[in-house]
Amino acid sequence: MSKTPRNPAKTGLFYPYERIALFIDGANLYASSKSLDFDIDYKSLLRWFADQSRLVRSFYYTALVEDQEYSPIRPLVDWLDYNGFTMVTKPAREYTDNQGRKKIKSGIDIEIAIDMMDMADKVDHIILFSGDGDLRRLVETVQNRGVRVSVVGSIETSPVMISDELRRQADFFIELDELAPHIMRKNDNDSGEEDEYVAAE
């Protein structure tokens, strides 16, 4: 069973000289933070993790709807791309379900898996922002290569936005609500252009 640190900065979760990488499932992080009623300040997020250890790379994954003249997430994607994140986008397809509701089909599991396996021998600790249980086997494989894996998600949302299997597999589970004070957007915080686009996902 993985431990759940109450304050991620004061638990020995991070070692100052270890190499870390962030893997962020954009849709999952957005939905979780919205359910917890706060917006992510991506500049603060990057700075906070860089202060904990040696941040090697920060990946952000999201889907973009094909054939859409304007995507509300495009400004955020562009901002992150210029401000320290490695952007990985994937075409998403809009479809209509049996009830006539428009939905978007996308999946970034394969992209996360490829990048994480590629980085496994270059870092000591991976922080995965996702709740997808399909990634449990990936986490286990990376751990078998000697890399610690912490998963950021929330069991405080309703419904819970992280699978129990993924949470148990992680070396540490970081509750997003506990991380919020370090990475949330504050009204008096000047984060540059990104402030305008935190709501896009």
Notes on the protein architecture:
This protein is α/β, with parallel strands linked by helices and 201 residues long. Helices cover 31% and strands 24% of the residues. It has 7 helices and 7 strands. The protein has helices at residues 26-35, 42-52, 74-82, 109-119, 136-143, 164-169, 176-183; strands at residues 19-25, 54-65, 86-96, 102-105, 125-129, 148-153, 172-175. A 7-stranded mixed sheet has the order 4-3-2-1-5-6-7, with helices on both faces. Helix 6 (164-169) links the parallel strand 6 and strand 7.
Quick structural overview:
By secondary structure, this protein is of the alpha/beta class.
Strands of the widest sheet, in order across it, are 4-3-2-1-5-6-7
Could you say what the CATH architecture is? 3-Layer(aba) Sandwich
Proportion in helices: 25-40%
* Number of helical segments with 4 or more residues: 7
Shape: globular
Counting helices, strands and paired strands, the structural category is: alpha/beta
CATH domain topology: Rossmann fold
Q: Low-confidence segments, ≥5 residues, pLDDT <50?
A: 189-201
Return the CATH class: Alpha Beta
Please identify which CATH superfamily we are dealing with: 5'-nuclease
**Could you state the oligomeric state of the chains shown?**
single chain
Mean pLDDT: 84
Strand content: 15-25%
